[in-house]
Structure formats: C-alpha cells, structure tokens
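Put briefly, the fold is written as integer tokens. One such record reads:
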Amino acid sequence: MRIFVLDRNKKPLDPCHPARARQLLRSGRAAVFRRYPFTIILRDRTLEASVVHPHRVKIDPGSKVTGLALVREDTNRVVWAAEVEHRGEEIKRRLLERRALRRARRNRKTRYRKPRFDNRRRPDGWLPPSLRSRVENAVTWAKRLCCWAPVVAVSMELVKFDAQKLQNPEISGIEYQRGELFGYEVREYLLEKWGRRCIYCGKTGIPLEIEHIIPKSRGGTDRVSNLTLACHECNQKKGNRTAREFGHPEVQARARIPLKDAAASNATRWELYRRLAGFGIPIEAGTGGRTKYNRTRLGLSKAHWIDAACVGASTPDRLILPRQVLRITAKGHGKRQRCGTDAHGFPVRHAPRTKRFMGFQTGDLVRAVIPAGKFAGTHVGRIAIRHRPSFRLNGFDVHPKYICLLQEADGYEYRKRKSGVSSPRLKTGAPDAA
C-alpha cells in the first residue's frame, strides 16, 4: 500500500513507496502529516515543479461495508485500498433507545398531554439517519482521497436490487403486483401456511397468537415471512429469543432472509451518486453484473475492496494489487446527551458540556509511554477520556501525563490487515499483445 504525499502547499502528489517515504523522513525533506492513512508532507517541493499522474477513486457501496480503491490509471496499480464499516445499525438502536426514554419521561411528567404525531414536513430526498450515515461515510472518504491524491475521475457501483426476485427468482409479469397475501388476510394466510397449530408445541384447537420468528428487538421485521403462529404459553416462554435459540431451527429455516441490506442500497444509491457528481470531476456508474464480470475475468477473490477495484468499464485487463488494506470503522463524533440514565430510564449522572479535558478528547489516537507498573511499556490506540486525570486506553487506565497525541479524533477507527494477495505485484488477466 502506497503512502500519500503532499507538497509544501498541501497539494496532492503521486503516492510513493513506503521505503521512499522512510528515506524522505530520515533526510528531513518530509514530515508526518497524518498517521491513518499515513501521509507525509514535503518541505521542498511544489506541485508546479512535480510530475503527477491521473488516479481514479473507485467505490463499491454496501449497507454494512463499503469498499474503496485508488487506482493509478497509467500503471493499473491499486495504490491504496480500504473497507469502511458503517454504523447504521448502531444509530438505529440508539434512536430507538432515545425514543423509549422520551416517551417514558413524557408519560411520567405530562400524562395529560395528547400524543404528538409526525407533523413535520420532510424535505425532498430525506433519508433516515441510519441511511444518511452510510452516504456520508462514502462521500467523506471520496473527498479525502481527492485531497491526498491527484484524482481525475470517480467510479461507483450503481446497483439496483429486485427485492421480489431475490425471494422468488421465477417471478414475472403480473405476479409483481400480487404479493404473498394476494387473496388473503394476514391471519388467514398464517393459519393456512402453518397448518392451524402452534408451531412450537404442535397443539391444535386452541387460540393462537401471531408471533415474530426473529423478535423486533433483535432486528426482525413485520414482514409476513417473519411471522408465525404460537400458543400463548409458547409465545411467553420464547420471550426475546429467536426460533433457533428457542430450540426450533427448522422454523427459522423456513423464514426468508431479510431484505434490509438490499433496501438500504436501493434507498441510498442515487443520493450517493448525486453527492459524488457534485465534486466537479467525471463520474462513471457501473452495474453489479459488470463488477462480477470484471472480477471473474481477472480471476480475483470476493472482497469489498476488490469489488471496488473492479467497478465499471474503466477496469483494465491487468491489475497490480497491494499486500495490505486498511480497515476503517465508523465510530461517530460523540453524543450530545448530557444526562445519563440507568436501565429504567431514570437520570443517574450528568456529563460536563465540554468534550475535551487536558487537551484530549475521546477518539484521539495517542501513544502512551508508561515507565513502570503492570502496564509498563509503549501503547498506541484510541482513548476514552474522563473528566479527571484517568483515561481509558486499550482496556486499562492511564494518566494523561504519559500520553502523546498522534492524531486527533476524526470519527473513525483504523487497523491494517493483509489483503490475501500472495504477491504485491500480482498481475491478472490476459498478457499484453505483442
């Protein structure tokens, strides 16, 4: 994986080999500009006095992980690759917790108040926060790559999922207008599907309740494919467990796979395209079929960053892949909640307004050199601050006097991993013509 290089005016130059970067740092011609991804800034070079080559940012957006690749177009080398883990599920969980706390407080304090409905108008193109964060992550990293490398074009996979064909590959024609419940009501459909008996104990001739195979609190939905019938005793005994955890994996096997990931990709694809088109550089849109064709033609394995490198018709017949890729995890920028609550929603603590203490904030990348004690040695990682001289680093407490800041918090956590490529100069595809 190459090292990003900036000139003395912070203009991007061609990424260089790590050995060249070490040579520049030892000679004093360069300084460390950023740790992750590692970037150096030259003291004696300007963009006007340098020769740069065109690079292309390639993006494979996903609901949970987005693949990124930076390809130098004249050598077909993937100079940098990464996978960004989104936090959409965490955002949704926290919003549901906040809603529950607010409703409980409203019921305790103002029982007389009438229920407030959704009376706010949403602008065109509105996306829920859990989906908007996926778009923002991809746009943020595309912008950063444009600032750290001479990018002249962007490629992204503009894929559309047919949710009904995912469940029924044989569907066609008017069948798209006739779902599972065509001619049925929900309860009658479930009674006929599950044989008018409790799916867990097998009892018949008793009142049956509609039950979620995967509970809604565990990510299940109200889709009819996630519903079944159970007696009151089994429904209560099952509680918050899935059908598999309750000892009935055959029931969960009959439930169809959720379509949340496909729905998230369908909802965000055009918003991401519009945001990338606003960069003012050419943008190429490729299909999922084209990506799979390119990956198969080059004989590459399945990975998010490899899919990104294979996006679009601009993919060459030969690629040079890196040995390492960067794993980026979205962590957010903290929270505005000042009042902490217990498990029942009652206030138990209050956090100060300021997010910084002794020059540090949660998420900073630091190096701690501890001279003695159980954790003596050098430790590097992200810290979690307390408003007292005792911070949390890699699972233990450390005093701020032993800490040196390496990189300020930017909302992401970084770690390197092997790409799975045996050689950094792996060349795939047909040989060049004579």
